[in-house]
């Protein structure tokens, strides 16, 4: 047994599954367990508080909720700190197993450490840093970066608002970008978000992003939704050979028709893209650049435009992305860096003809359209979606402001009958969300039974049971009559469905009717389960 304990690989594997308290006890129990235990214990830290406790007890003190140094630091005070900081690979993870008191660092904490540190590099092997979790003042960000070794691979710069609003912090941000470009050439992931000063265009951040793109050849992921990316910066980003994931806010005043990247195949490895953009800017950008390898797209619209721009918007999506690659598409509103609010504009209606270019994306798995425009859906469109997108897993066409609002005169709803087409043609579909459905097709059970089209669909489903495993169905606000008929129809179309989500509005929806549909669906599921258990019990009895 003693021989086994001397095998370092075995001891490290044991320590990997231990809790922090156990690791601390192992590290103190025997020298043979000390090294593997501390290697695991100190690899990931939520912040620098555990390291501060490595200083002698008389060197620091809590002051209320603040942690501050009480005296100057001598070289010998750093021994334990440097030992453990060299092990640290990750700072700023949300680690639930770390029992660290929630101190707020005193403003003198980091300046004192910088003034008395025996070596410039305090974190030589750090690989991942989440600045927000660190807890230091944002104006200390540049000096902290200088204390990190050049092996940093993941950096998340998410200051706490209203950070970087004053001139001092703004200057610190620019300096930090220069340091990142000069030092961290192995950086793979950079997240820069929640910087609320990006309405101010005097910060030179466009040049900083360009410098980053030209310097960080290993960058695989760049999340930067607040800095306005100009043509110059986008041209630099397009040359990043390793870039796979990109989130950016495209400048609205750029003439994207003149965008001509130096690389013959721009964004050659890009797979996921999120654009914060206006419709006119996207139409210009989408027509100027093709991204044939991208399979996940999110377009977050910063403001709305004239009705004539809507058809061109969807046509540009089809033009920019390839049907042989695109699998996920989300179009949603956002409050962009322009600060333009998004009031609902019901007179702007998305028509079925606008969406038809998207049907060419035959590999579509997840489609979300969530805008404050009006939407006019029809059975033919949803039926064609079911045919065009057989791999569909999630479908959401939802106008958020339908909650508490009536349909605009230009808006129409598809009927509940068309859902059978989705059930039969999209076996992987797990979630449907629609801004509304017309479930008032059958005022009575007799009319339901007399509806030949509905009965044909039910007969077809009985002959070839629906393969659907749909579990989530959200109809927002929808007119309904005869909830028993609706429940029967849904139970045949979606055998795994047990309830329906909806939003109640007294002007539009009968809440008790949809509640009864959910009740009946749950009862049907309970009967099915009981019948299945009875058959299983009967089979077991015959076998015995």
What does this protein look like?
By secondary structure, the chain is an alpha/beta fold. 38% of the residues lie in helices and 15% in strands. The chain contains 21 helices and 19 strands. Strands 1-4-6-7-8-9-10-11-12-13-15-17-18-19 form a 14-stranded parallel beta sheet. Strands 2-3-5 form a 3-stranded mixed beta sheet. β9 (221-229), α12 and β10 form a beta-alpha-beta unit. α16 (379-388) packs parallel to α17, α17 packs parallel to α20 (483-493) and α20 crosses α21. The longest helix is centred in the C-terminal third of the chain and has 33 residues, at 511-543. The two termini are 48 Å apart. The model is unreliable at 95-101, 196-203, 336-344 and 401-406 (pLDDT under 50).
Q: Summarize this, please?
A:
This is F-box domain-containing protein. By secondary structure, the protein is α/β, with parallel strands linked by helices. The chain has 21 helices and 19 strands.
Tell me the radius of gyration.
29 Å
Strand content: 15-25%
Low-confidence stretches: 95-101, 196-203, 336-344, 401-406
Class computed from helices, strands and strand pairing = alpha/beta
Neighbour order of strands in the largest sheet: 1-4-6-7-8-9-10-11-12-13-15-17-18-19
Give the overall shape, derived from the CA principal axes.
globular
- N- to C-terminal distance: 48 Å
Q: State the total count of DSSP E strands.
A: 19
Number of helices: 21
Biggest sheet layout: 14 strands, parallel
Question: What average pLDDT do the residues reach?
Answer: 81
Helix content: 25-40%
């Amino acid at each position: 047994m003693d021989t086994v304990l001397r095998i370092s690989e075995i001891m490290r594997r044991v320590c990997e599954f231990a809790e922090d308290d156990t690791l601390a006890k192992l590290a103190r129990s025997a020298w043979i367990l000390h090294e593997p235990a501390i290697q695991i214990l100190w690899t990931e830290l939520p912040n620098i508080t555990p390291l501060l406790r490595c200083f002698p007890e008389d060197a620091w003190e809590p002051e209320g909720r603040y942690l501050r140094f009480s005296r100057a630091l001598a070289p010998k005070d750093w021994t334990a700190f440097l030992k453990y900081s060299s092990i640290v690979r990750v700072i700023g993870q949300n680690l639930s197993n770390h029992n660290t008191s929630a101190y707020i660092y005193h403003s003198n904490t980091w300046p004192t450490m910088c003034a008395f540190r025996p070596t410039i590099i305090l974190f030589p092997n750090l690989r991942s840093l989440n600045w927000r979790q660190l807890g230091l003042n944002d104006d200390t960000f540049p000096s902290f970066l200088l204390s990190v070794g050049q092996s940093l691979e993941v950096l998340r710069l998410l200051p706490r608002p209203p950070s970087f609003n004053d001139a001092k912090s703004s200057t610190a941000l620019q300096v930090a970008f220069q340091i990142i470009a000069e030092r961290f050439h192995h950086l793979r992931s950079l997240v820069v978000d929640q910087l609320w000063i990006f309405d101010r265009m005097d910060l030179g951040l466009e040049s900083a992003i360009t410098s980053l793109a030209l310097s960080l050849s290993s960058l695989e992921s760049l999340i930067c939704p607040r800095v306005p990316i100009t043509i110059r910066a986008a041209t630099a980003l397009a040359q990043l050979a390793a870039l796979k994931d990109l989130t950016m806010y495209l400048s609205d005043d750029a003439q994207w028709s003149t965008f001509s990247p130096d690389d013959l195949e721009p964004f050659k490895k890009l797979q996921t893209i999120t654009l914060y953009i206006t419709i006119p800017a996207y139409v210009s950008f989408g027509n100027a650049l093709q991204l044939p390898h991208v399979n996940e797209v999110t377009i977050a619209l910063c403001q709305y435009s004239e009705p004539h721009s809507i058809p061109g918007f969807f046509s540009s999506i089809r033009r920019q992305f390839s049907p042989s690659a695109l699998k996920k598409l989300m179009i949603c509103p956002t409050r962009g860096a322009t600060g333009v609010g998004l009031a609902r504009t019901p007179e702007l209606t998305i028509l079925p003809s606008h969406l038809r270019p998207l049907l060419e994306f035959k590999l579509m798995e997840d489609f979300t359209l969530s805008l404050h425009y009006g939407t006019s859906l029809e059975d033919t469109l949803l039926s064609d979606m079911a045919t065009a997108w057989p791999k569909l897993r999630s479908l959401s066409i939802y106008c958020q402001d339908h909650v508490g609002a009536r349909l605009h005169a230009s808006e129409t709803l598809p009927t509940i009958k068309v859902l059978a087409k989705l059930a039969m043609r999209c076996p992987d579909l797990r979630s449907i969300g629609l801004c509304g459905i017309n479930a008032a097709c059958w005022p009575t059970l007799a009319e339901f039974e007399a509806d030949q089209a509905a009965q044909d669909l039910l007969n077809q489903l009985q002959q070839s049971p629906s393969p659907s495993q749909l579990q989530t169905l959200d109809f927002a606000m929808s007119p309904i009559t005869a909830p028993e008929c609706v429940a029967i129809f849904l139970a045949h179309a979606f055998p795994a469905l047990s309830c329906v989500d909806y939003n109640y509005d007294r002007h539009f929806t009968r809440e008790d009717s949809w509640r009864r549909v959910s009740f009946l669906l749950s009862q049907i599921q309970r009967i099915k389960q009981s019948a299945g258990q009875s058959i299983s019990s009967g089979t077991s009895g015959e076998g015995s």
